[in-house]
Amino acid sequence: MQEKWWHNAVVYQVYPKSFKDSNGDGIGDLPGITSKLDYLAKLGITAIWLSPVYDSPMDDNGYDIANYQDIAAIFGTMEDMDELIAEAKKRDIRIIMDLVVNHTSDEHAWFIEARENPQSPERDYYIWRDEPNELESIFSGSAWQYDEKAGQYYLHFFSKKQPDLNWENEELRQKIYEMMNFWIDKGIGGFRMDVIDMIGKIPDEKVVNNGPMLHPYLKEMNQATFGGKDLLTVGETWGANPEEAKKYSNPEGQELSMVFQFEHICLQYQEGQPKWHYQKELNVGKLKEIFNKWQTELGVEDGWNSLFWNNHDLPRIVSIWGNDREYREKSAKAFAILLHLMRGTPYIYQGEEIGMTNYPFETLDQVEDIESINYAKEALEQGVPLEQIMDSIRVIGRDNARTPMQWDETKNAGFSDGQPWLAVNPNYEAINVQEALENPDSIFYTYQKLVNIRKENSWLVRADFELLETAEKVFAYIRKDGDCRFLVVANLSNQKQEFAVEESITSVLIANTDVKATIEQLTLAPWDAFCIELAK
After folding, report:
1. Burial class of residue 168 in the structure, from the number of CB atoms within 10 Å of its CB (0-12 exposed, 13-18 middle, 19+ buried)
2. How do residues 282-310 score in pLDDT, each as one tens digit?
3. d(CA 474, CA 497)
4. Angle, vertex CA 491, rays to CA 485 and CA 494, nearest 5
5. At 176, which helix (H) or strand (E)?
6. Exposed/middle/buried for residue 35 (C-beta within 10 Å: 0-12, 13-18, 19+)
7. Catalytic pick from 29, 80, 122, 236?
8. Which terminus of the chain has fewer CB atoms gathered within 10 Å of its CB, N or C?
9. Among 196, 339, 353, which Cα is nearest to 260's?
């Protein structure tokens, strides 16, 4: 395997709307991100995954794109984008653009032409039928919307304002590749590919993910755009297993660098139930089983893992699986230590590095997310009590990740001088960047140290992974590289757990506890976590 820069990288996801507002309109923007690059450089990250900033009516917070080659006015201008790329580069930080090519906005010029002119080439850029079948939208309801102007139904697996693109159309594919090359020419560091496993869909056969043409399309994309260039490409693939992930990420396959798989995240939901039937208690045994599978079956020679707990669609890990009250800092550090020392490229979601938590939503009026609003409407119609709905949104809703970044203890957490588009979490006076930077024992410095460990220790790329048999709530594994062995241990519970280290220790790489005392007592205190090098 030829090592690439992204094998040792740590990527930081920025959700622009909520990161930093520079002009007082209550919405985060590109100049705001640029103003915080020194902070991200201090954290040490290698790249920023930038959630969509393209021109958009914002029906789904920018994942509904009206123009791929323009910037949404709320975020700034193309000049602002150029400046962000240039200023990030000065700090050795690359910008990874969010690529949304499964669908566009219904306000994209292609769709406007498609609906108004049945004879236009653009008509075939989308998927039209005279009659709908029973396919359902991920955002609830039918996946088909009747369009009066067009006189037909169009397919939309997300909002009805997000019509799905028809990847069978070769002309459409070439236009997408041209657009990708426009961004590559601007000097970006790669692409994160939104729901990319859906582009091979066959709606008449009810094939939504992993259609037979998915991998041929990706190979074609690779050859037409980023193939042969030193870029990171990561696909969002909810249904992937290790064998499928090899097809995407094996270097010989010439598709992507890596994928996001969500098998561990699906432990947040009750098996076989929609996401709103959440499972708040972490099944640590299942978590160990899943990570062990991905770490051992997706080998370094035939693919690559991504590592993450959080993103813009998920609740805060410290709130759903950690303890965001008496053990907030310690449990946040435990999850970080456990994940970042596995094989793969770690992703940090904004605010994760300071232990931001879920928001205590009280009323539906406080909710902005279209998925949550659609769920609430449907559940109310079915007679589900409002408080039960609000409980689900508080635990699992996407707005939990989207509350404004907490910079300091001033008004609006230093996010904006104006009224923020989404309420700031009321705990911002205690949980913020300024406080974290001033406290040498803060979560921030644990993340900073983990980033540095990845940069300085090449064994993290290639070392074998061995899961250890332990108490149920203890997750422990060894990374072995030749004669070198590194033991990583995390107690993922509020209770003490038995654990013995029976070998001599060479050094402590990182810990959220007094490792010597812990080992002597043969007991892990709640949320203890550490990585130690074992003697040869």
Report:
1. middle
2. 999 999 999 999 999 998 889 999 999 99
3. 7
4. 170
5. helix 170-185
6. middle
7. 236
8. C
9. 196
Q: Are residues 509 and 474 in the same domain?
A: yes
The span from the CA of 105 to the CA of 164, in Å, is: 9
Residues 425-439 have a mean pLDDT of: 98
Q: Find the mean pLDDT for residues 518-536.
A: 95
Q: Which two tokens stand for residue 322?
A: 């950690």
Token pair belonging to 525 = 């205190």
Q: Are 394 and 358 in contact (CB under 8 A)?
A: yes
Instruction: Please answer whether residues 65 and 55 qualify as being in contact, where contact means their C-beta atoms are separated by less than 8 angstroms.
Output: yes
Tell me whether residue 194 is one of the annotated catalytic residues: yes
Query: For tokens 């654990």, what's the residue?
Result: 499
Indicate whether 142 belongs to any domain: yes
Select which of 60, 98, 164, 194 is catalytic: 194
Q: Identify the domain containing residue 151 by its residue range.
A: 109-155
Tell whether 310 and 432 lie within a shared domain: yes
> Among residues 488, 473, 507, which one has the least CA distance to residue 336?
488
Residue 69: count of CB within 10 angstroms of its CB: 13
Burial 80-93 (b: 16+ CB within 10 A, else e): bbeebbebbeeeeb
CA distance 200 to 216: 9
Q: Number of folded domains in the chain?
A: 4
> pTM for this structure?
0.96
Query: Does 458 map to a domain?
Result: no
Does one domain contain both 15 and 65? yes
Q: Identify the residue whose tokens are 């923020």.
A: 420
Instruction: State the Cα angle at 479 between 476 and 484, rounded to 5°.
Output: 130
Largest CA distance in the chain: 77
